Structure formats: C-alpha cells, structure tokens
Amino acid sequence: MASQGAGRISCPLQGREGCSGGNGKGLTKKYFINHLGTRHFKTNDLKVSYKDRVASDFSLFCALDSTLHQARIWVCRECFCTHTFSKSCKHADGVVVLAPSFKEVAIFGILVPTRPDLSVVDNTSAVTLHSDEAVVDGAISKMHSLGVESICFDINLLSRVFSK
User: Fold this and answer.
1) DSSP character for 73?
2) N or C: where does the chain have the smaller number of CB atoms within 10 Å of the terminal CB?
3) Does the structure show a pLDDT above 60 at 1?
4) pTM value?
5) Beta bridge partners of 124
6) Residue 33 belongs to what H/E stretch?
C-alpha cells in the first residue's frame, strides 16, 4: 500500500524529476495534490510524458491508481488534472468529462495496460508451461497439484510500494 501512517501518501512517481516521494514520511492529501501539479504534471510536455508512461506501464498504472484512490482523487486523461470524485472536469473548449465513480479506475480514460508476461527462465516463458509444470534447475518438471491456485506478484509494483 502507498500509505505512510494515518493520512499520509507516498508519491508513486518517486525518483522521477527529483521526487523523493515524501522522504519516507509521506505527504498529506493537500500537499500530494499540489506536489503532482508542481512536480510531475507542471508542463504539457511532462503531462504527455506521464500519460505515455502510465498507458504503457502496468506497474506504474496500478501504483498511481491506488495512490489516487487513497487520496480520493481522479486524473482526467485529456488534461491530466486532478479532481475529487464528486467533480467533473471542465475543459476550456467547453468539453465536460464526467467524474468516474470511486469504484472505477482513478486514471480516467486510459485503459489498464496489459500485464507483463511472467519472467523467462532458461528460454522457457512461464506462459508456455502447463499449469502443473515448472522450471527447476533448468529442467521442466512436473509439480504435484495441491488444489491451490498459484499467485503471481508484479515485482516492479511490489518494489515501488515497499521501497523506503
């Protein structure tokens, strides 16, 4: 989780543009919103850059979406501005983007990127293995089924969430 204590939010974009993400203490909601606008989404070029990164990086999308939900705000795909879930986004050209519900993604208008394939071990992609096979010491071997579904973790997302 992106939280650092009660009401504190760690920036999921830490390490970019000199961001320290709250220096391990996290940011208050008000400062987090200000931080996004002044550090990460300050210029149109930065907004375009982040739109592209978020649209193509599953881990970044999930981390940002989770953090925006924690702050109870959403980001409009068109202008990349933050809004509370009760407010629609009104653009200068008169276009109004209706606010999503809290249950929807907080990065409104950008599709969730595809999950990366599982890692490749010894030139064998985990996707090509049958559900009861695994690569152990370079050889494909059968695993005995315990009747339990396997769980896949996104290592990039976990390292961002648990760093510092």
Assistant:
1) E
2) N
3) no
4) 0.65
5) 121
6) helix 29-35
